[in-house]
Specification:
Helix content is about 40%, strand content about 20%. By secondary structure, it is of the alpha+beta class. The longest helix has 21 residues, at about 155-175. The radius of gyration is 21 Å and the shape is globular.
């Protein structure tokens, strides 16, 4: 997440002045981090005008893998399985069977050739990740599921794999212009439970996204043909499922107006009141992004 790399922010506050929160150093512990409070606040406390970020060395190696599976459930166990074996991918994306079927039926030529019932893209950028020893150890950790593992042997193949992932959202939007997409999060240990719950709810949805951190893009393709009250009910059921498993309503795109009512309904009332108290303290006149989030 972006917040992990931000050391300080400059922000225009309610007094009309720009203040710096945090310092340009990797270590600081002089009280609570007000910079982190501003990050992800969606502009309700002040207007961020600048930031100082932490840099890391650019990776020199990439191991990009296409992992088709015959059984979708096997894929859902992989995040925990890899972590238990000491492997932390820099990227772990997935397509559920429904998304894969959509891509095969109507997608571009390269997407129509995608293998498997479901599919994952794994990428590592550890030093030595392209060595035979690393690949052998990874294959062992994956177990039988690695039978049809495909390794991108050159940068062109790597780019082709990522192009398919990048076009997925635009492709679904083109095929289903009125679809609704939500970016819920569930703990990696509960991903299997989430899909079981989604099936029980009988919400017509296709899902892809960031399996490695439990950030799932759940797409309701028939939203445009669904009665508004029924659609609202489906979305609330989806949010309740995620929150009930220890997750949250959004991993990337925030609350804004669209998720405000669900956020207020499903959050701890004590935390909501604390957020409102902070809003009053930071923005007593209520001029920053009024009516959003809380």
């Amino acid at each position: 997440m972006t917040r992990h790399w931000v050391l300080s922010v400059d922000a225009l506050m309610a007094d009309g002045e720009i203040h710096r929160f945090g310092i340009g150093s990797v270590k600081a512990n002089a009280g609570p981090s007000l910079a982190q409070m501003l990050i992800g606040s969606e502009g309700i406390f002040g207007m961020i005008t600048g930031a100082t970020v932490r840099l890391i060395p650019k990776p020199t190696e990439f191991l990009t893998l296409l992992l088709p599976v015959a059984n979708f459930q096997d894929l859902l166990e992989l995040p925990g399985q890899l972590c238990a074996n000491g492997f932390l991918p820099s990227a772990f994306e997935f397509f559920d069977p429904a998304v894969l079927a959509e891509l095969r039926e109507n997608g571009p030529e390269e997407a129509r050739r995608l293998p498997g019932t479901a599919l994952a893209i794994l990428e590592f950028d550890d030093r030595g990740c392209t060595s035979e020893a690393f690949i052998a150890a990874l294959t062992d950790a994956l177990g039988p599921i690695s039978e049809h593992l495909q390794i991108a042997s050159e940068s062109r193949q790597r780019e082709q794999i990522w192009n398919i992932r990048r076009l997925t959202s635009a492709f679904l939007k083109e095929q289903h212009p009125k679809k609704v997409s939500e970016d819920i999060v569930v703990p990696r240990s509960r991903i299997h439970d989430f899909f079981e719950g989604l099936e029980k709810l009988k919400i017509p949805a296709v899902t892809y996204g960031h399996l490695g951190d439990g950030n799932l893009h759940v797409n309701l393709l028939a939203a445009g043909e669904t009665e508004p009250m029924e659609l609202d009910s489906q979305l609330m059921d989806l949010f309740k499922l995620a929150v009930g498993l220890g997750g949250t309503l959004s991993g990337e795109h925030g609350i804004g107006l669209a998720k405000r009512q669900a956020f207020l309904a499903l959050s701890d009332p004590g935390q909501i009141e604390l957020l409102r108290a902070l809003k009053r303290a930071w923005d007593p006149v209520g001029i920053f992004n009024p009516g959003k989030v809380i």
